[in-house]
Amino acid sequence: MTTDTEQPKSGLGRRQRARLNRGIQYAVLVVAIIVMAVVADWGSIARAFFNVDVAIAQFPGVITTALVNTIIYTALGFGFGLGLGIVLALMKMSPVAPYRWIATGYIELFRGLPALLVFIALGFGVPIAFQLRFDIYSTAMLALGLVGAAYMAETIRAGVQAVPRGQVEAARSLGMSPTRTMITVVMPQAFRIILPPLTNELILLTKDSSLIYLLGLAGDQYELAKYGRAALNEYASLTPLLIAGLCYLIITIPLSRVSNLLERKYGGGVRTKSGHGGVGA
Q1: Nearest CA to 207 among 62, 78, 35, 55?
Q2: CA-to-CA distance for 54 and 192, rounded, in angstroms?
Q3: Distance between CA 65 and CA 103 in Å, rounded?
Q4: Nearest in space to 70 (alpha carbons), one of 259, 246, 274
């Protein structure tokens, strides 16, 4: 058996071969970057992505309208989804079997459906089938909330189950009712555990809010994706999409940092079967 100190027939030890392989990979990467830099048509790239005049024309509307609406749509969806997710999580943990069946069916259904279909169903299907039409803010809230609730319910359930059983028993021994125990003892501790994955869910809902543009928006209802697409058609330039992408990063990067800080402060969070957001499979 060859060890790190022994010299194989090739004359190189295991660590030396590993360093050589890394050096070759770095060299290939550098060469590829140099070739791309030489071959690329930087004039066309600059006109397509970095047109200063087009970029200036996006302000202040991209901030005062598109970014603000994106935040509003996301906040509405997250608030509705969180409330519904708590109800679903409690139903899934209920000793009443029909409650568990309903919650499980809902969670499996909306985790399996693309969010796009939910937006289309609420924006077009429900008005046709039931003559019931929602305004754009209600549609965004319901579509994002219905999908987000399915994932948040599993996260919340896992957080509640992660609270030590002794905490519940101690509260019950003090004469607290099951409801009061859940509200005053279990839920506060559970939310400390699940804050990181809930923050990741908020990031995902921020990106999913871009689907609302499919339903048709008035100018003052534009979110970032719709604003960028409209400007793309107007200016025939990819610069508006770049600006819209940067605005998404203005939202998601701070939220990612908050999630990382919360994870370090409160631990690694919880893991469920959802495989969505910050909750692993």
Answers
A1: 78
A2: 45
A3: 37
A4: 246
- At 157, is the secondary structure helix, strand, or coil? helix
186 pLDDT above the threshold of 80: yes
Cα–Cα dist 278/281, whole Å: 10
Return the amino acid letter for 241: L
First to last CA, the chain: 39
Q: What is the pTM of this model?
A: 0.80
Question: What pLDDT, on a 0 to 100 scale, did the predictor assign at position 274?
Answer: 44
Q: With pLDDT > 70 as the criterion, what percentage of the chain qualifies? A: 90
d(CA 276, CA 281): 8
DSSP secondary structure string for all residues of 220-234 = GG--HHHHHHHHHHH
- Give 135-150 pLDDT, tens digit per residue: 899 999 999 999 999 9
How many Å apart are CA 27 and CA 134, to the nearest integer? 57
Of residues 105 and 54, more confidently modeled = 105
Nearest to 228 by CA among 76, 68, 62, 75: 62
Of 116, 281, 278, residue with least CA distance to 194: 278
78 within 8 A of 124, measured Cβ to Cβ: no
**Structural contact between residues 143 and 119, judged by C-beta atoms closer than 8 angstroms:** yes
